[in-house]
């Protein structure tokens, strides 16, 4: 019998996870029980601003009423059919999402890693059947410090020893170049171009610590890919859906109000677009791979799939989540608030030895702490931030990512900046 959970303390819940769960995460010591918009509450009733947003899955905020409603409505009507049959949600969703992002076709999956796996399989198949690469020899170029998920194939091209160590043997067929290094990409393509099927890249590297590449990098990479007949594959699982102040990070400074205007000069169109996380507003695991017919056409019945991929709940919720993004102008809000946030943080950086720099775009930002990546400084600051009512997490030792839900108001953001300022001051002079 399950014992009653009434009035259990944070410590008791943490003990349970510690005792019965695999130790594959190291969470901040806070136990959450409720979320609403930009806020979460712990089991003791303390309220926090959420500045992680479940790694940017919660762009639309916690428990958005329209998403809750969409979920409940569809869950009580039809939850799962498998793809053995048609359902009345998938088709409308496929039409909606392809028009929203401007591609011919979508392949629906669930988790981000699955969508990346799907893109890799699609890319390889395209390489053999369209580009004419000899079977079994296709290469995909990736970037150092990447994060694309946790499957065996994906960690095979990770440069993070924790992600990769003792999980081999690894999947071959990947070449890694330094991120933001156009010349390295040029060299690899000139040397192996006829065997390279794709280039897989995060337009901004989120997990690595919010590394924003030079303006010329993505455009140059897309151009090189075109020249060498290589698929340019953008992993926008974290950067997409308004997070960086444009619908997609590959939209650059596009001001299209969330409607992707493909004539926009700054838009760098990927051949393969990978989405996840906020595609469902964090309500349900929904991911997708988008591409045009000339690419997606290589996948035939029986060659790829997922029991839950494209299920009615996922389809229904994702449509609503994208509609919310547009209706509430969250992309524009992210852009506006992002500038204010970086201005405030820049002042802190200018006046503190503790901080090296602030960087980011839209509401995907990071502050680099003046300490070694092995130090516990960033972690200790995050614990102190939590005490002061704001939840954020270090990415790589000395980097703290700040990524609140995009439904935040300016007033709330200013209060959060005050909390962050106050916390840094408190850390230096306790
Ligand atoms: C989170 C993330 C993934 C993996 O998504 P999961 O849903 O955790 O499998 C892949 N790529 C990027 C850029 C991500 O941020």
Radius of gyration: 22 Å
CATH superfamily membership of the largest domain, which one? Type I PLP-dependent aspartate aminotransferase-like (Major domain)
Q: Based on Cα principal axes, name the global outline.
A: globular
State the low-pLDDT regions, or none: none
Describe this structure in words.
The chain has helices spanning 10-20, 53-56, 65-75, 90-101, 112-131, 152-156, 161-164, 182-192, 215-227, 293-296, 312-327, 330-350, 377-387, 410-428; strands at 32-36, 39-42, 47-50, 105-109, 139-143, 174-177, 196-201, 231-235, 272-275, 287-291, 355-361, 364-369, 390-391, 393-394, 399-402. Helix 4 packs parallel to helix 11 and helix 8 (182-192) runs parallel beside helix 9 (215-227). The longest helix has 21 residues, at 330-350. It has 430 residues and is α/β, with parallel strands linked by helices. 38% of the residues lie in helices and 16% in strands. A hairpin with a 4-residue loop joins strand 2 and strand 3. Pyridoxal-5'-phosphate (PLP) is lined by residues 55, 111-113, 116, 147-149, 202, 206-207, 235, 237-238, 276.
């Amino acid at each position: 019998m399950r014992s009653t959970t009434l009035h259990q303390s944070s410590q008791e819940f943490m003990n349970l996870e510690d005792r019965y769960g695999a130790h594959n995460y190291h969470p901040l010591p806070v136990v959450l029980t409720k979320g609403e918009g930009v806020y979460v509450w712990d089991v003791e009733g303390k309220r926090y601003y959420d500045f992680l947003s479940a790694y940017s899955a919660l762009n639309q905020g916690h428990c958005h009423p329209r998403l809750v409603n969409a979920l409940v409505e569809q869950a009580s009507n039809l939850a799962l059919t498998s793809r053995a049959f048609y359902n009345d949600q998938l088709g409308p969703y496929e039409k909606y999402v392809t028009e929203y992002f401007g591609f011919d076709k979508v392949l629906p999956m669930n988790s981000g890693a699955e969508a990346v796996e799907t893109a890799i399989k699609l890319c390889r198949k395209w390489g053999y059947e369209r580009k004419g690469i000899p079977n079994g020899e296709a290469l995909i170029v990736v970037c150092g410090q990447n994060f694309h998920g946790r499957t065996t194939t994906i960690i095979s091209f990770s440069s993070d020893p924790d992600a990769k160590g003792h999980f081999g043997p690894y999947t071959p067929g990947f070449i890694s170049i330094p991120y933001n290094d156009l010349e390295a990409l040029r060299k690899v393509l000139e040397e192996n171009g006829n065997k390279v099927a794709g280039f897989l890249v995060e337009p901004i590297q989120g997990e690595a610590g919010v590394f924003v590449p030079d303006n010329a990098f993505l455009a140059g990479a897309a151009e090189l890919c075109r020249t060498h007949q290589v698929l340019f594959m953008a992993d926008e699982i974290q950067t997409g859906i308004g997070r960086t102040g444009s619908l997609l990070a590959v939209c650059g400074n596009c001001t299209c109000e969330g409607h992707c205007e493909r004539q926009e000069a700054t838009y760098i169109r990927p051949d393969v677009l990978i989405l996840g996380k906020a595609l469902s507003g964090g309500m349900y695991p929904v991911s997708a791979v988008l591409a045009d017919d000339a690419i997606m056409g290589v996948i035939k019945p029986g060659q790829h799939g997922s029991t839950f991929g494209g299920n009615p709940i996922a389809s229904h919720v994702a449509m609503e989540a994208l509609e919310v993004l547009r209706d509430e102008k969250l992309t524009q809000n992210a852009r506006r608030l992002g500038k204010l946030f970086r201005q405030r943080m820049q002042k802190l950086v200018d006046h503190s030895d503790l901080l090296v720099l602030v960087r980011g775009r839209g509401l995907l930002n990071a502050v680099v702490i003046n300490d070694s990546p092995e130090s516990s400084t960033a972690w200790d600051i995050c614990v102190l931030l939590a005490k002061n009512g704001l939840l954020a997490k270090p990415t790589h030792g000395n980097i703290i990512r700040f990524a609140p839900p995009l439904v935040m108001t300016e007033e709330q953001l200013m209060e959060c900046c005050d909390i962050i300022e106050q916390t840094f001051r408190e850390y230096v002079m306790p």
